[in-house]
Automatic annotation (TrEMBL):
It holds the Pfam family DUF2231. It comes from the Bacteria. The chain crosses the membrane at residues 12-35, 42-61, 87-105, 117-139. Keywords: Membrane, Transmembrane, Transmembrane helix. This is DUF2231 domain-containing protein. Residues 7-155 form the DUF2231 domain. It comes from Amycolatopsis sacchari.
Amino acid sequence: MPVFISGLPLHVMVVHAVVVLVPLSVLAALVVALWPAARRRYGWLAVGVTAVATVCIPIATSSGEDLRDRLVPTELIREHAHLGDQLLVFVAALLVVLAALVWFARRPREAPGAARPPLRAVVPVLVVLTVGLAVVSAVQVVRIGDSGARAAWSGVQYTAPQHEGDDG
């Protein structure tokens, strides 16, 4: 995988997909988990968005590792990489639980007296797990973004804007 494209680090470009898609997945998962009508209508769409977000995470971490190997190692960069490595676990778990929720919620209701016991408790448990994993994923993506911003910008000194033609 190239480290740079047109002089820009690939990681900086790819990470924007994660920064957009993970929060979008979190919002979609929360709506689908907490609103049964949305679950029936948009559940599989939420699963699809979460799947795309999940696929983007290893691309972002891999490109980040390639960039990290070309930078002077610092504690801020190590912290950012450590946090970034954890995101896939949370979002992949969200994907699995969300898919299970949508699938179980769409199953036809079992008739009373059916041979199999009803799975009434499964959907509420999956709702709770979905909400929990969505919150953890959102918190983790914020922590990663904050640590990445600190790693990239902690030593930058800002000055007043300099406009052409300004004499003072």
